[in-house]
């Protein structure tokens, strides 16, 4: 039972944490058909206040891991347990995709209302919550616009609002800001952390940007490819709330160097 | 104001020039009226045959309307069915294609055998001509839904019904409307052709296609031209109808109208 020992090792290192685990992943394994192993023996405990950043070379299975968590892919072996809720097998989940993936025929507000409507909420309730979130992400002035009338950054904001309307317990983000310029990306990073303070969700996100990973995460998981494994966990113990000034702290820079070096290490191993 | 002028001016210039060339050609080459009547001959013949042309046009429009709307309903229904079940798609699509391959010209005698001379056969022929572009385009639209958007619906536990109504159908709308545009342009062709093979010549029952046959056998050449323009007008009505629908449904969000906003 090598899985079990790995899992215990991880949870031992969690002892400093006070929060309960929200998600527990044990011996997770994923393979497409008879192809190569995409994910190999992933063991991970995610705590209730965690914001986990997944980073690694392409092909390391980080997006697949996220999709498995979101129920968009099915696992080959292993177990994912959600411990935040008692009743339903899946917690309320928000998913922010790589592209904004807004319905082009719906206005911003109708897009943000969509997850609630799909889950049977009344139109009034959906609208009330949607307006709240649209204001929160600063799109109040364009709530009746169509996606094609918005800039890339605004679309991403709408997409984040959509993921948050259902008041998720778990928020999954798949390279959400990859297509944006750096300024917009930094702004949205800060806003995302503010939103996390307002709505306590557990976050897991995939990114290619080291600074983004360090800025947002409570823990950065560096993954290695072929097969996809968790290579190293780097806790980011910078205090929250983090602001744009956080990026200037020497501790922040140190962590960025640490994550970058780990990625270099991986490249040299390959 | 300037925009309106710049929109109307070029086609007006071209139209006037074409008519001028028309007269010029007739004058220069001394072309007899039975080969190429002048515009005023056509207008004169049109007003002489006014009642025949109008009743023919009404009859043809009726056949067009029935054929077009039944093919619209039938086409959408079949497409949704094909998109809902991959079994149905695999099972039926080859035969729909086969039906499409079979030229209507060959089918016409069989249709007349089944439905008799008259409106019924004409609308069936119109239906067959319009049906395929609607089914092909709508099915394509319903089956090519952006995988990323499907993922959004899956993440939020959408029911299959919601996925069809709120995702696949709106996504397929531009495809459907493209099919409808093609169908609208084909509708008068179907009805006119139906008329020539299955039309009946008794008074107000005669469609425009039948009127054309009669005029040409009587060598009423300017009247034939007038009939052609009348048919043109019916086609124009149908295409405009679909264009208006296209604009109403898509102009707010679809990229094909991006310039106008």
TrEMBL record, chain A:
<keyword id="KW-0813">Transport</keyword>
<comment type="similarity">
    <text>Belongs to the ABC transporter superfamily.</text>
</comment>
<dbReference type="InterPro" id="IPR003593">
    <property type="entry name" value="AAA+_ATPase"/>
</dbReference>
<dbReference type="GO" id="GO:0005524">
    <property type="term" value="F:ATP binding"/>
</dbReference>
<feature type="domain" description="ABC transporter">
    <location>
        <begin position="23"/>
        <end position="250"/>
    </location>
</feature>
<dbReference type="InterPro" id="IPR050166">
    <property type="entry name" value="ABC_transporter_ATP-bind"/>
</dbReference>
<dbReference type="InterPro" id="IPR027417">
    <property type="entry name" value="P-loop_NTPase"/>
</dbReference>
<dbReference type="GO" id="GO:0016887">
    <property type="term" value="F:ATP hydrolysis activity"/>
</dbReference>
<keyword id="KW-0067">ATP-binding</keyword>
<keyword id="KW-0547">Nucleotide-binding</keyword>
<dbReference type="InterPro" id="IPR003439">
    <property type="entry name" value="ABC_transporter-like_ATP-bd"/>
</dbReference>
<dbReference type="Pfam" id="PF00005">
    <property type="entry name" value="ABC_tran"/>
</dbReference>
<protein>
    <submittedName>
        <fullName>ABC transporter ATP-binding protein</fullName>
    </submittedName>
</protein>
<dbReference type="InterPro" id="IPR017871">
    <property type="entry name" value="ABC_transporter-like_CS"/>
</dbReference>
From TrEMBL, chain B:
<keyword id="KW-0813">Transport</keyword>
<comment type="similarity">
    <text>Belongs to the binding-protein-dependent transport system permease family.</text>
</comment>
<feature type="transmembrane region" description="Helical">
    <location>
        <begin position="60"/>
        <end position="84"/>
    </location>
</feature>
<dbReference type="GO" id="GO:0005886">
    <property type="term" value="C:plasma membrane"/>
</dbReference>
<keyword id="KW-1003">Cell membrane</keyword>
<dbReference type="InterPro" id="IPR035906">
    <property type="entry name" value="MetI-like_sf"/>
</dbReference>
<keyword id="KW-0812">Transmembrane</keyword>
<feature type="transmembrane region" description="Helical">
    <location>
        <begin position="223"/>
        <end position="245"/>
    </location>
</feature>
<dbReference type="InterPro" id="IPR000515">
    <property type="entry name" value="MetI-like"/>
</dbReference>
<feature type="transmembrane region" description="Helical">
    <location>
        <begin position="96"/>
        <end position="116"/>
    </location>
</feature>
<feature type="transmembrane region" description="Helical">
    <location>
        <begin position="171"/>
        <end position="193"/>
    </location>
</feature>
<keyword id="KW-1133">Transmembrane helix</keyword>
<protein>
    <submittedName>
        <fullName>ABC transporter permease</fullName>
    </submittedName>
</protein>
<dbReference type="GO" id="GO:0055085">
    <property type="term" value="P:transmembrane transport"/>
</dbReference>
<feature type="transmembrane region" description="Helical">
    <location>
        <begin position="12"/>
        <end position="29"/>
    </location>
</feature>
<feature type="transmembrane region" description="Helical">
    <location>
        <begin position="122"/>
        <end position="144"/>
    </location>
</feature>
<dbReference type="Pfam" id="PF00528">
    <property type="entry name" value="BPD_transp_1"/>
</dbReference>
<keyword id="KW-0472">Membrane</keyword>
<feature type="domain" description="ABC transmembrane type-1">
    <location>
        <begin position="57"/>
        <end position="246"/>
    </location>
</feature>
């Amino acid at each position: 039972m090598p899985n079990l020992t790995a899992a215990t090792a991880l949870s031992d290192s969690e002892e400093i944490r006070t929060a309960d685990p929200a998600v527990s992943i044990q011996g997770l394994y994923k393979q497409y058909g008879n192809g190569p192993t995409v994910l190999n023996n992933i063991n991970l405990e995610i705590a209730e206040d965690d914001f986990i950043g997944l980073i690694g070379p392409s092909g390391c299975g980080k997006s697949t891991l996220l999709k498995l968590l979101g129920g968009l892919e099915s696992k080959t072996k292993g177990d994912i347990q959600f411990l935040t809720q008692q009743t339903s097998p899946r917690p309320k989940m928000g998913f922010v995709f790589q592209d904004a993936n807004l319905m082009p025929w719906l206005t911003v507000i109708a897009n943000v209302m969509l997850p609630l409507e799909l889950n049977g909420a009344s139109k009034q309730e959906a609208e009330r919550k949607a307006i709240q979130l649209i204001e929160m992400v600063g799109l109040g002035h364009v709530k009746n616009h169509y996606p094609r009338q918005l800039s890339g950054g605004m679309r991403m904001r709408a997409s984040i609002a959509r993921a948050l309307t259902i008041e998720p317990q778990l928020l999954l983000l798949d390279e959400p800001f990859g297509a944006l310029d750096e300024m917009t990306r930094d702004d949205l990073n800060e806003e995302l952390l503010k939103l996390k303070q307002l709505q306590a969700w557990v976050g897991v996100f995939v990114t290619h940007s080291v600074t983004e990973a360090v800025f947002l995460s409570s823990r950065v998981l560096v993954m290695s490819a072929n097969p996809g494994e968790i290579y190293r966990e780097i806790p980011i113990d910078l205090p929250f709330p983090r602001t744009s000034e956080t990026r200037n702290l020497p501790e922040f820079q140190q962590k960025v160097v640490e994550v970058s070096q780990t990625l270099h290490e991986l490249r040299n191993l390959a | 104001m300037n925009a309106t002028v710049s929109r109307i001016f070029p086609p007006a210039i071209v139209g006037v020039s074409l008519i001028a060339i028309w007269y010029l050609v007739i004058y220069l080459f001394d072309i007899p009226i039975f080969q190429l009547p002048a515009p005023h001959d056509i207008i004169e013949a049109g007003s002489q045959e006014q009642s025949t042309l109008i009743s023919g046009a009404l009859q043809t429009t009726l056949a067009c309307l029935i054929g077009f709307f039944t093919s619209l309903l039938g086409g959408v229904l079949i497409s949704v069915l094909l998109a809902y079940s991959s079994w149905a798609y695999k099972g039926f699509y080859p035969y729909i294609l086969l039906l499409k391959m079979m030229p209507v010209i060959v089918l016409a005698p069989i249709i007349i055998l089944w439905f008799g001379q008259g409106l019924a056969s004409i609308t069936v022929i119109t239906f067959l001509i319009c049906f395929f572009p609607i089914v092909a385009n709508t099915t394509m639209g319903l089956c090519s839904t952006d995988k990323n958007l499907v993922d959004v619906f899956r993440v939020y536990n959408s029911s299959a019904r919601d996925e069809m109504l709120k995702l696949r159908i709106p996504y397929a709308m531009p495809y459907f409307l493209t099919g409808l545009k093609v169908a609208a342009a084909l509708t008068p062709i179907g009805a006119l052709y139906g008329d020539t093979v299955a039309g009946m010549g008794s008074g107000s029952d005669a469609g425009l296609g039948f009127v054309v046959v009669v005029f040409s056998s009587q060598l009423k050449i300017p009247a034939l031209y007038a009939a052609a323009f009348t048919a043109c007008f019916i086609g124009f009505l149908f295409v405009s109808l679909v264009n208006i629908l296209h604009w109403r449904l898509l102009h707010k969000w679809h990229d094909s109208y991006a310039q106008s906003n």
